[in-house]
Amino acid sequence: MSGKIKQRNAANTSESATTSVNEKILKRCHSLYTDSENGLVNIGESLGMKILPPRKKINVMLMGNHSAGKSSFINWYIEEHVQRTGVAIETQGFTFITNGRKRESLTGNATLHLYPHFKALQDIEGVVDYLNTEISTSKQKKFSLVTFIDTPGLVDGDMKYPFDVNETILWLGDLCDLIFVFFDPIGQALCKRTLNIVERLNEKHSDRIRFYLSKADEAGQESDRQRVLMQIVQELCKRPGLNKTGFEMPTIYIPNPNKQRMRVCGRVEVLWITRVAIATSTVVFEWN
């Protein structure tokens, strides 16, 4: 008996050592609802009311054009490659990226079981088959307090999604705490589908939306970045709902060691060619 008590105390000590103060507060608030004896969920059931416990983490949805850098941002934030990235449309469904004790990947029904607040998603035809959850053990930054929701890259034209992507994003926007909208220097704000969804989200949740110009390092010099920002703002201001004062859109980019090496090698090569040209011209001059 005493041995079991010691093991339990040791487990509690190790858990508290790896749990931050913010995590403890959120877990305590959650336990007020889920307590088996005096929890608010049980009290609600006795009164004929269905009460869901509060979410333990902040939900952040990332949306934007195809290849705008949403998945790359998530990989950078948690410092682990959980989301596929590339020029092609890699994210074709909705992926929940959250922190856990062991690395796991869950499919649609398991995702809805893990997130009961999102069970109404099954009412949207075809969405469940394109729901996934990636559980990572990363403790980087504030990842233990955040659940990212990666959405499909949005494109115009003949692209057909196997579900109503517009309504799904709008529904998720009602439950998310923050909505990050990513624009990139190439796609900018030229995708009508993206702007239509953002405009509708802005009608109810303007305080949750944050705009970012991603891949800012691919926009060239500072003057080019300013020109890209102006073009994006002009497109946004054409929408009455998005035309507002105090508009902010920070520029962000993820440092790429390979690109930095290429730049250094390029500069070295240019310097070498210049030195050779100077040396050659000097020899020719002296010969003459």
UniProtKB/TrEMBL annotation:
Nucleotide-binding is among the record's keywords: yes
Subcellular location: Membrane
Protein name: Dynamin N-terminal domain-containing protein
Lineage: Eukaryota, Metazoa, Ecdysozoa, Arthropoda, Crustacea
Any GO MF annotation of the entry: GTP binding
GO cellular component assignments: membrane
Disordered: region residues: 1-20
Natural source organism: Scylla paramamosain
Biased composition (Polar residues): 9-20
UniProt xrefs under InterPro entries: Dynamin_N (IPR045063), Mitofusin_fam (IPR027094), P-loop_NTPase (IPR027417)
Domain Dynamin N-terminal, residue spans: 60-167
One Pfam match: Dynamin_N
